[in-house]
Structures are given as structure tokens and as C-alpha cells.
Amino acid sequence: MMAKTKNQTSTRKTRTTSTAGHAKKAATGTKLPRASDGSEENPTTPFLESTEVPPPVTRPLKAYAFDPSLGRFIGNEMTIEVKYEKLLPGPIGQKIAVIDYDGANQVFYKPVDLDDPSLLIRDGLAPSESNPQFHQQMVYAVVGETIQHYEAALGRRIRWRRGINRLNLYPHAMISANAAYSPSAQGILFGYFRASQTNPGRNLPGQTVFTCLSHDIIVHETTHAVLDGIRTFFSERTNPDVPAFHEAFADLAALFRHFSHKEALLDTIQKTGGLLYQYHLHPDAGMSDKEEARIQGQFPGSNPLVGLAQQFGEARGTGQALRSALGKRPDPNLIKDPDLEPHERGAILVSAVFDAYFTVYLRRTADLFRIFRAGGGDVHSVELSGSMANLLAEAASRTAEDLFQICVRAIDYCPPVDITFGDYLRAVMTADRDLHPIDTGGVRDAFMQAFRLRGIVPDDAEYFSEDSLCWPQVPPHRLPTVAGLIFGDPNGLTKSEKDQNGDALRAYAKKHAKLLGFRPDKPIEVPSFHPAFRQAPDGSLRIDMVVEMSQKYDAPFDPKKPELGTFPVRGGVTLLIAKPLLENGHYAPGEIRYLIQKRLDHDYGAQREQRQRRFSLREGLLEGKDPKRFQIDFNMLHGGI
Amino acid sequence: MTTRAVAHKAIRPTKSKTKTAHTATKKKAKTTSAKTKRSANRKPTAAAGSASGLKVRMYRVGFGDFFLITVPTGEGKRYILIDCGVFKGTSGTGDLGSIEEAIDDLFETTGGELALVIMTHRHADHIAGFSKAAERFKEFKASMVWMPYWEQFNDAKDSPSNLQFEISELAFQLAMQFRGRTDETAQEALAQLWNATGIDFNAAATGGKKLSGNALALDLLKNHLGKNGENVRYYAAGDKPELPPELKGLSAEILGPPPKDAKAFMALTDLKKGVGQYLDSTTSSDDGAKAIQPFRPQWVADPHHDYPREDAQGKAIEYQKIRKIVDTTQPDMLAAAAGKIETFLNNQSLVVLFTVADKNLLFVGDAQAGNWEHWLYKLDAPVKDPTKAGDLTEVSQQILQTIDFYKVGHHGSTNATPIAVVEALGKDHSANGFVAMCSTEAAVYGNPAKGSEVPRDPLIEALGKECALVRSDAFEITTTSKGLIKAAKGVDTNLPKPKAGQLTKENLYVEYSF
Fold first, then answer.
1. Can you list the residues of chain A whose pLDDT is less than 70?
2. Probe site for chain A from B188, B272, B278, B327 (most A CB atoms < 10 A)
3. DSSP 3-state assignment of B125?
4. How many Cα atoms within 13 Å fall on the side-chain side of residue A603?
5. Which of A92, A108, A336 sits opposite B312 (nearest CB)?
6. B147 lies in a domain?
7. Domains in chain B, number
8. B314 in helix, strand or coil?
9. Three-state SS at A554
10. Closest to A337 (Cβ–Cβ): which among B296, B307, B384?
């Protein structure tokens, strides 16, 4: 162990002494290099073999798997493997920086130096509520890990919203039972607060609760930031589904993370007899019917996998929406209630996706259960054999990974503005079919039925069938090709390549405005384009450019009374442009495979304008002049105020 | 409730008749009868006499409502008082100092005998007169007092749903957080809280248990004018109100607030829960509120010493800027909570439609979106998707098209007269047009740069095109306490000419004779 530390320190030193050392080596490079400790040169040593320690791939960091309130129960402490990068005290890395400024007390807290050898040797600080440096570490670790998951699912590196190079994370920004992604603060603000004196749940009455120690809350907020980077106008409030969608999607990301956590998963499988969707867990200790629970081992627990941010919810006495959505028979009429608060509305979407998840999980494990029964196992008993539990855990975790990827990829197939739950269903179907043309295991079917049961149907699909729900693929040669695009590679594009793409896409939009469903009289923007690199099941690499184009005009709240002001109406298209093949040694121009529209022309535009007008008036957006009022304010949304 | 439902159904064929004339013949008979039924409902018998002598007087007290209706009856004039309040607002200039003189004038006009007193809701700008002139009001008598539905929960003094108690407690705690702060957000929040409680939080703490502010006004309304609650009636939309016998010939319909089990009350409890966290997390001291400290002092760092100067990309990290950004996100939640209390109270407003002879008078208090929507769109009916809320119900459309007098909601603030209403008021209005009165005082609330000024200029302009609109701040006024106060800038100082009846003005009021 000592040796390892020594090595690591020396590595760090070599690296920080930087280029001078490298230059020297290069100069002496023609000779076989001598080992740096000056020992006898061994002629059989290949010259690439170095005594330098290779840089690590990941950095292990300790964190709470759920939140501090769950104590040391099985699997509540975990070690997260974050992609290795050199860190400054904060931790401050390339894409994210933890800056611990407390706005309520107006002080900075001392930053943790994760490159400190005494922390490196033990995977960072041990979980602790009273040490702010552990908080900083956990926020860094969970945000880093979440980014990795998104990058894996999307097949590209994620970027923050334009203008944000580095996402700032403020673990103790404010006194608030709340955390919020804020584009204007260029980061995520986590609050802390005192637990209720009267109904604190598992907290001490009046103890300080930190939102930055809730794994779920961190993932949730990171998701808002990721989504905002992919979709420029997604947080514009144009219909009741918009804020609800943001909440639902962020909750889904947090929930799916639970299922990758092996220990918690195994424990839950054992306590539910493999029926992971059950809300209540069997207690550790059994008892007869007449007996009353006396020790904690006899209390039935609640399933940590399907609950979100428990400490937070208990401290505030809220958070019932999701539980009730997952615990009730689906009601197709609920979604029609205009008084649904965004979280309640979002919970409908979450429960639909989770219905699909559990359905797929049960289908995939049906044979396992059959074999188990055939071997004399009793599935009604909660006692599953260890290997059965292991297999189930594996299936559950793989299925979660699959469904999370489908959900994330679907974002690339959503229209760029004015998202509805119905649009999202269509995007999910299309995204999955695009990569897996055959619906093995009935994943898409599970999605369709789960959404239908909850009354989520697209406005414009003709039938509730897979064919009809998928966005139609653009037939070959129907739309003009896009010349001059550079697809680059997964490491990203250089500035000049980005500029060239921007020019090519804007020129295309201008030339073919009508075909794309834009109004030719208004300028068209290209807010984002992302090359995506994804592996198809046959092993081939599929390269697409995902492009957002949008157009805006200001519509009066009342056409007869223009003096009452206006609201922005946006239309737009999402394009998926395939990287072409080589022809005669040159790349052919890009072919548009999908054209996903929210049109502004003809009746579509007028209808959307009218719908948005009613929504805006109802939401009280008439008042004020600040254009920010059309955007979701996540701070208020989460605060429930 | 039932009357409304019947009327609503019965009206429906009218539209289908105009739309598809050829299919309507069968329904014709029914339509006609329905229409007469509806008219009978709204426009009582001719026996009620003519509208001559019917008057609405708007006392000019500044930013506040103080309206008097003179109702002609067979036995002489009878009086209805709707609100009596004023509030100085964010700017501090909302109170003209004329309310006591106006109350004297009220006494002279009515002889201290009021048939009906309506308190639309418990904001200072609607009830402060009852506390400012509490002694004077003890000389008044009232046959009946109407209050919004939610007020009845305050009668049981220690009940868990004691609204006054809950609001004051919340407001007091919130106000403590804002005390000593001079920024615009805090000042606006303080004004809202003052309006909600009638208590000046900037001044020294009010000592003892003596009633003051809104609590005193409510005490006077309920216990003196309302004879210890005996003559107080609480109403919500759809209730059939009880009128004092001397107002024979007049009828009234209650359009708001939304009835019980509405979510509004729940919203307040939720608010307490939500805001409670912020309040619990601070401790009060003489200099105002102090935040809890989550960590021991040794964790406090000096950013210039303990943090890196540059980030991993070699760019300077601007800690001052970061400070500023994070600092500005702090007060939002509390200010939002103060705003919620404001909206919550405004939406309790009792909305009353009076019919005397063939004249219809609509008083909406300070009703905001939630209150209006309930009756405009009938949201308890099956149409639930907001995006498909559709047009106003025909009943509400008809009400709006046939009114002769409109008390402009919430002092002309933009959130209190929905666009759909302005539109319906203007469309196919009866030949006599209508008169609208707006009790307001310019430059007291809001900021024109943010579009939040009260009254909201575009709204007043739009409404002004549809009717004879008169603002209380359109003329100069002389008061004993403050001397001459000039008319609001840029406002037309001529009395508009209504299509029917006549507008007149005195120093203390503007009056419309139908």
C-alpha cells in the first residue's frame, strides 16, 4: 500500500513538471531510453514499457447511494467510479466545478482536494453529514457519473447550454428545501434546510437536511442541465406538459439509476420475492399473524428503488405524487385534469415508463421463474435462492439500462419545441425502432400499452399501433441532401468545423424553408447540432447529425388589442441526417432520415398559437414584460410555490 | 347552483339556432321559453320600479375600494356599502388621507343606516376604513353583512383553520425576513404583507393584544355591523344570497369566490408547509433574520486563498461574480410566498351581480384568475383540459354583455380583468353601453418597465374603448390632511359621457346615476 502511494505521488510530480521533461525524452528518443531510476538497461525490455504508472481510467469516490436518512442499511454507501480527470481543489474539473459558496450565510467553505494522497488512498472521504468537504465530493461524483450515463446513451459527449462552458455546482447555495438548475447562475444550486419540528420522518426534528446529499436530487438536477444543453427551447412554457415533462424525465433518470445499484437491488429482490414493483418490502424478521412488530427487523420497509429522495420528502412532508402514481390503478382520465400540478402530471409519465419497465423485466424473467417453479421453488415465498436472486438482479439491472437508454435517445427524436407527452411517446417508439428494427422482447409494445393505459396519446397519430406511432421516416431522395456537413468523431468538433456546419445548415434551412414547414417570411435559427455515434445491434456504427432548427414570431395575447403585449410562438424541426457513404473517394452529401416537425405554417401554426395563447393566459403570463416568465423557473417549480 | 345549471343548459339552443338556422325550428319554442325564464331570473318584475334614482358612488380615497349604491325602493332610498378601505402601497403615496372625510360624507348621505354591507375580501385596501374610523362606524347600523365564504372559518377562534390567525402568523414571520431590507423585491413583499394584515411591519412592533389593522376592521364588521355574527352571511359562487327585506326589488347573484373544497384553502396550508422550511431555518435577532449555520466556523474559507484562481481550462474564476449570482437567488422564495398570500386573499373576493329594475351591476372585488375562471369557464363542468377550455360559457358571456356597470377588478391591475372579459364586454354590448369605475392611484404599485404597473395602462386603454371608464385618480382632490393632490399624470381629466345616465363628480367622489 505504501508503495502505491509513493508511485502515485511521483506520477503526479512528473505530470506537473510538464512539457520540459517530455521534450528531453523526445530529444534522447533515438537511443533506447534508460529506466528513469538509472538501473541497468535490459535489452529485452520493449521500449514502450515504462516505469511510470499509467493514468487511471476512473477515480473511485464514496457517496451515499440514497441519502443519509437511510443510515447504513445495506447498500446505502457506495463507491462511484468517475471518469478520471485531474482535479483542482473544489473539486474543479473540465466540465463541472464544485464551488461551495453559501449565499444564505455569505461565506465560502473550504474546498476538498481530491488529489490529496491521503484521500486518494481511501476513495475519498467517508460519508458524513457534518463535513462539507464530503458534500462537495459527493456532488462531484454523482454529477460526473450521471454525465457518463448520458454520454453512453446518447453516443456523444454532452455539452451544456450555449454560454456555459463549465457547470458550477453550489452544494450549499441557499436555505431552501429545494435544489434547482439555473441557467442564469450557470449551474445547480442546492439548498439546505431544517427538518420539520413536528413531522420530520426519519430525521431528527429540526436537524439540517442537505439536498446535496440526496443522490436522487443530484441526478434529477443534472438531468435538467443535460436536457437544457440538448434542447434549447425545451424549457419554454408552451403547454401544461412542458414543465411536467422536465420533472418526469429527471425523476426517471434518478429512478433508473437505482437499478444499477447491485446491493440495493439484491436486497430488494430478496424482500419482494423478485416482484420489484411492490412498494412494501417484507421485513427481515418474519412473525406470526398475531404478533406485533417489536424490533426494527420486523417493520416492513418501503422499496427504496421506487421511491425518490426519501429524506427530503419526509423532512418536507411531501413527495406523495410519485408514490401514488405508482401505487394506483392507472386512470386514463387523470391526465385531462387541468388543475394537476406539474409534479402530479409528471408522475403520470413516470408511472407509464415504469409500467413498461416492470413489464419488460417480468417478460424477460418469466422463464427464470418457470424454471424456479419447476425445480420446486415457491415463487410466493419471498425466500429466493441466492443464484435466482442474482439472475433476477442482473435482468433487472440490464433492463433498466436498456430502458434508460431508450428514454434518453428519444430526446434526439423529439420536436425541438412545445413537447407533449404524446410527442415523447412517438419519439421513444421511433428512437428504439431506428436502432432495433425488430421489437424483440416486446419493449415497444410495453411502452405503447403503458402509455395508453394512462391516457397519453399523440394528437396526430392515426392509429395506436407501432407503425402509426413512429414518426415517419423520410423516403430516400424525397428531401434535398445537405451538403458540406462535417460529422467528426466522438471527441467532438473543432470550432472551424462547427462554424462550417452552422453555415451549411442555415443555408439549407433558408433555401428549403417551405419544405421544412417554416414560414419563409421569418428568419430560421439553428440553435444546436450534435453528431451522434451509436452502435446498432449488428455491431455497425451509425453516425447521424441531430439538428434543431427553429423559428419564432411574437403573437399578440389578443389580436384585437395589440397593446396587451405578445408571447413568443416557436416552430421547429428536428432533423436526423445520416453520414453518407464514400462515392468516388468523396463523401456524398448528408441524407435526411427523419424530419420531426412542429410546424408554423398553415392551420398547424394557427392552432398551436391558439392553444398556446389559452395556456399562457391561464398561467398568467400576460402580466409583466420580463421575457424570462415564459421559461420554467426550476427554483419555483421544485419549491411548489 | 341549481339555478345556474338550469339556466346554462337552457341557453345552449340559442347558439345552435344562430349557427344552424335550418335545424332550429323544432327547438324554437323551447328556446323562447328558456330565454324568458333566464330573463325573468335576471331582470325582476317591472313591479320593482324603474331605475331612476339608482346610483353608484365611488369614493376617492386613493388606492382602495369604497363604493356606495343607492337603491330606490317604494319606501325610499336604501344603501349598499361595498368595501371601505385604502392602502398606501409600495410607493407610500396610495392613501390620499381622505377616507375619514369620505366616511363622514357616507354618514350624511345614508343617515348611518345601511341595508347591506359587503366586504369583498380582507385586504387593507378594502377594509382599512373600518379600523381607521372604527369609532365613527359604531354610529352606523347595518341590516346585513356579506363576506366571502372563507371568512366563516375565522369565527371559531382557536380552530385549526383560523384563517386570520394563519395568515397573520405567516405574514409576521415572512415580514421579519424582509425587515431592514431596502431592495425592491423586499419592499413589494412587505407592502403585500401589510395589506394582508393591515399592520406596518416597518414600524415598531405593535405591543399587546389590542386589535389593530385588519383584525380590528374585521371585528367591527362581524361584531358591530354584523351583530356578533348574527347578521353576517358567508357566500361562495352559486349560493342563493339572503337579502335584507328593505331591498325588495333588487336581486343578487353570487359569482365568486369558487365554492368550498376548492383548492385555494389547501394551497395556503401547502404554502405554510413549503415556506415553513425557510422560516424554520432562520433565527430572529434585533437586526432581522439570521440564517442557520450548517457547519462549524472552521470550515469557512477565503476564496482568494483556498480556491484555485483558474479553472481546469485555464480561465480565471470570478468569485465576486459567483457571489453575486448566488446571492440574488436567495430571496425569491420568500417574496413568492408573500405574493401567494396576496393572490390567495384576492381570489377570495366576493363577486356579486346586482339587478335593479333592468340594470345589471357587477362588483368583482379584487378577483384574480382563479376566481374569474371558475365562473367564466365553469371549470367544474366536464371541459377540463385547459388548452380546450374554449370560449366563455354562454351564461357568463351574456352576463358580461348585459351589464350596465362594472367595478374594475383589483384597481385596474392586469391580473384582475381577463382579456376574454374585456373582449366579451365589448362584443355586441347592449345599446346603452356601460360605465366602469376604477378606484386606483397611479404610480403606487409596480413598474411600467416590467409591465406590472397598476393600473395597467394597456388594459385601461382597451377597456376604455368599450365603455365610459372613470378612474378615481383622474381629478385633483383637496383633503384636510394633505391639502391639494393633483390628478394622475397623463390621464384624461374629463368625465366621460356614458350612453345612458349621467356621471357627476364632487371633491370626494364620482357618482353615476343610471
1. 1-49, 70-75, 196-203, 205, 279-289, 293, 296-327, 338-339, 378-383, 619-627, 634-641
2. B278
3. helix
4. 0
5. A92
6. yes
7. 1
8. coil
9. strand
10. B384
CB contact under 8 A, A192 and B294: yes
What are the residue ranges in chain B where pLDDT is below 50?
Answer: 1-49, 158-160, 204-209, 264-266, 284-288, 380-389
In degrees rounded to 5, what are phi and psi of residue A225? -70, -40
A100 touches B326 (CB < 8 A): no
CATH T-level topology, domain A62-230? Elastase; domain 1 (3.10.170)
Q: Which of A131, A561, A608, A629 to mutate to test the interface with B (most CBs of B within 10 A)?
A: A561
Determine contact, residues B288/B179, Cβ cutoff 8 Å.
yes
State the ipTM, two decimals. Answer: 0.74
Grid cell in block for residue B251: 336581486
Q: Residue A408, Cα to own-chain centre: how many angstroms?
A: 7
In a domain, B8, yes or no: no
Mutate to test the interface with A, among B184, B265, B326, B428 (most CBs of A within 10 A): B326
CB contact set of B404 (below 8 Å; sequence gap of 6+):
B359, B360, B361, B430, B432, B434, B435, B500, B514
Domain that holds residue B229: 51-202+214-268+336-513
The pTM (predicted TM-score) of the whole model is 0.69
Q: Distance between CA A156 and CA A158 in Å, rounded?
A: 6
- ∠ CA B430-B432-B438, nearest 5°, is 100
pLDDT at A88: 93
At residue A230, the 3 state secondary structure works out as helix
Q: Which three cell numbers stand for residue B430?
A: 347592449
Cα distances (angstroms) measured from residue A491 to each of A228, A502, A587, B371: 21, 18, 20, 55
Q: Give a yes or no: residue B309 inside a domain.
A: no
- The residue length of chain B stands at 514
A253-277, pLDDT tens digit by residue? 888 888 887 777 887 787 777 777 7
Q: What is the CATH number of the domain that holds B259?
A: 3.60.15.10
Cell of B128: 382599512
3-state helix, strand, coil in chain B (%, to 5): 40, 20, 40
DSSP string, A387-419: HHHHHHHHHHHHHHHHHHHHHHHHHTTS-SSS-
Q: Which residues of A touch B384 (CB under 8 A)?
A: 336-338
- pLDDT tens by residue, B115-153: 999 999 988 899 999 999 999 999 999 999 999 887 876
Give a yes or no: residue B223 inside a domain. yes
Inter-chain residue contact B276 with A196, CB threshold 8 Å? yes
CB contact under 8 A, B332 and A623: no
Phi and psi torsions of A449, nearest 5°: -65, -40
Q: How far apart are CA B429 and CA B407, in angstroms?
A: 17
CB contact under 8 A, A166 and B311: yes
Residue B454 to residue B473: CA distance in whole angstroms:
12
